[in-house]
Amino acid sequence: MNFLIKIFKATILILIISSLLVLVIFYLGSNYNTISLKADKIIYGEEYWNINTDSLAEVLVSKMDLNEKIDQMYGEKMINSIPKFFGSYLFKNRFAHIYAGKNERLNIPPWVLSDGPRGARVLDKNINGVTTFPVAMARAASWNIDLENQIHQVIAKEMRANKTNYAATPCINLLRHPGWGRAQETYGEDPWLLGELGLAAVKGIQSHNVMACPKHFALNSLENSRWVLNVEVDERTLREVYLPHFKKVIKEGKPASIMSAYNKVNGEYCGSNKMLITNILRDDWGFEGFISTDWMYGLYDGLDGIKAGLNVEMPWQDEYSYKLLEDGIVQGEIKESDIDKLVLNTLKTRLKYAFSFDSIDYNENIILNNEHIRLARHAAEESMVLLKNEDILPFKKINNIKVAVIGKIANLDNTGDLGSSNSSPPYVITPYEGIKSYNEKLNNKVIYDDASDINKAVDIAKNSDQVVLVVGYTYKDEGEYILTKGEMLKSAEAKELVGVKGIGGDRINLSLRDEEENLINKISKVNKNLVVVYVGGSAIDMRKWEDNVPSIIFSWYSGMEGGNALARILYGDVNPSGKLPFTIAENPDDYPYFNPYTDTITYGYYHGYSLFQKFKKKIAYPFGYGLSYSEFEYENFKMNDFKKEDSVLKFNFDLINKSNVSGNEIAQLYVGFENSKIERPLKLLRGFKKIQLKPGEKKTISLQLNKSDLSYYNTEKKKWENEDISYNFYVGGSSQIKDLLKINRNIY
User: Fold this and answer.
1) Are 473 and 536 a contacting pair, CB within 8 Å?
2) Domains detected in the chain
């Protein structure tokens, strides 16, 4: 009897607690409303409104008690955020924002983060999606700085319409190995290309009063063990290879914020790495914005974070707890003035954006307007890379023929990773849908087959006049690794997969699936009017089938309008102009060492084209390579007259379109260090320009570079230096020597 009474009492208690929890969730969810992110003149009054934001920040910090200061150093309290999150979703069909840094007593408006590498991360289910662009790696293949700026302006506008003002974009981590799961989020293997595109992105975002947050600082290019990984790197490699793009974006773009990486660098977690945060970012580069952790497990010791100069822990209060920081002050490990400095630094930046004037009205009508959709299609068209073409493309526009579109991902909504870089479009034009729609005006029959029955697929291809075979990956194969930290740790300790792989993550095998490679080879035997379209975020191993097919296109994860863009390229309405932002190896074993399940890895001085050229490794396709329906020729490469004291070097060359088709060419400028007296790459990219030419047109093109861009980092003297040697300067259509014109000069 006593046992039954105990069960009854326990049941009643559970029901009471559950009811209270439901009431809390209902209250927090139903009462959740978006909060203005802009400062209000009426609330502040003339006294504060008319002083500059730096002075105002100092006044506000002086009025805060210690707990209020600590409240500025994290997103929200988890105990409040989670019920609000679920309640809002259940009762308002909206995921609640995390309002970081809000202080109602002092009228400090909050800031709200939205991810955004390929489109605003809209969390309101009542908004019918957002404009979704090709992934960043695809846009890197466009080599179009103006386009990247325009794309990030659109992303910023749609973020503002969704009541957010802080963008976790761009990702400017260097692609060290094509197996990296999040390769699709960045701009390739070359620091110069990363820097130029990252700078364009930051300027685009911040032109609409959205705070940009380049990420992940630093040396983040391995996904599966990112929470436990220690990256070992020497100082010269760090300065010359893995940080120049961050430096350019910081110094020239002046982003409001920067996001630290999960991993360690030389034994210290990035979120509390004083060398990275204070010595380099603050002292060397003069960064004035605030530093935020990546979301969850981005900080492991709050006192170390304070000492290193980390401003904000996201998304919830954890290591930056009241007790830890209060005890740290009492015990003398930190000072309250240390906290004041970090809070002041953050608040100065945030207030600049809160008080800034908006030139347009950022309402929901901005989202997905026609201009934005056209830009999404244009970005996909500019991004696609024609790797191989044996007189197959463009397809002839013939009436009343059969067109086969084959492959299990050929009719799949496949825009890339579904982790933090996810974007939600209202529709996705698949390759099949785009090709079908295009062929309707030609009265052609378009047949789709998912190749689940390979013999059936081969038979369809055999009896078709044109064949498009779509192969590659989805979010299940590569992207942000969705698995618990504990499970990651087990694999890292074992240095091999332990248990379930999880969703996304790094690729160990760079080949396509066996069934796809088999399908390619079988179809290539029965129909030579074949195009293989690859969907994915980085390089692949094509050795088993490349020689058997006449045409290959890298279409990437091409966004909501990708299918339409692909069709327009296939049929010649658009001339392909994309070029590879990375090198494709002949043998994948020639890439740098890569193990997704390791807890320690060394990043060396050479990677990408610098590695392949230095050690004479065979490549399948070089960095900067891509075909066109036009034929371009470079002539008359010259260096302008200069004086030894000049800081800028100027070059001219003629570019000719030798074909009868209008096209865009990406001219690339390289500097060769073949005569260096120290260890250096044979050559490095130092400039590029995308040029449009009409049939038969000739243009004289100018490029320039700063002498400082020829320097190396002297680790003994702790400074950048230039060599007094003879330099080689190259210009052409790829990084391959045979594609380049050369000038040799001593410039000192």
Assistant:
1) yes
2) 2-364 (3.20.20.300), 366-621 (3.40.50.1700), 632-746 (2.60.40.10)
